[in-house]
Amino acid sequence: MGKTAFVFAGGGSLGAIEAGMLRELIASGVRPDFLVGASAGAINSVFFAYQPHTAGAMRLEFLWRGVRRQQILPWSIRSVLGAARGTHLVNPAKLRSLLYEHFGNRTLEDADLPVHVVATEMKTGNEIVISSGSAVDAVLASTAIPGVFPPVPLNGNMLIDGGVANNTPISSAIRLGATRVIVLATGFTCAERRQPKGALEHAMSALNLLVARQLVSDLERWASHAAIAVVAPLCPLDVSPYDYSQCGVLIDRAAAETRRWLEAGGLDSRDIPGGLRPHSH
To answer: What pLDDT was estimated at residue 89?
Structure first.
């Protein structure tokens, strides 16, 4: 009997897009056997794993609509100066507090649906799949953006953001036994988007290009190993992964686009969406 995996990609505040996608997927009757997530996708996958049904999807949406940057990335002039001296930019205390508010002391094994969190081993760059232990620690490791958050010591490893090794962990899902993979991607900023402003936006723009190219490559590579459907990404997309003020808009757009995708038979399509490739309008 085949197994269906939902794969949640990383993307900072663009993780809100996945909440809109998830709502419509669950409403349509699609049910995963397990979940895999990296970075922001780790937050979504673990949150949903504890309540893998309509109410859980709605609660995840509520979380994204209410979150503010200061709850996750409370940087200041002082922290920027600290980073310039070689330390990380942001103290993860607020993010840990937010995660603890929702996960408490629960472990990944406590979830109602098996969930696997992808992180990166700092020294080697190797992908680490976390399937047990503290949910808070696993998600902190998977979201530890290099230079922004400190690496997280876990099980003898120093771990950083899962997006470094595998931002959209399709390969991880297949290795874990998935025969059908439904990818919830955060999207690709179009060639027509405005020029990045500031150092962080320039860095994120470059990373976005790298991640999009890697996703297309992975879709081509793993197409013969499993039935892979990619939920239609938002296009055009012009929101910084550090901008948490647009989460509600992103959720609404993603939900509407996912409904259209489902009605058009998207679940049975194996095409790579054009929105994931470099393009213009």
So the answer is: 77
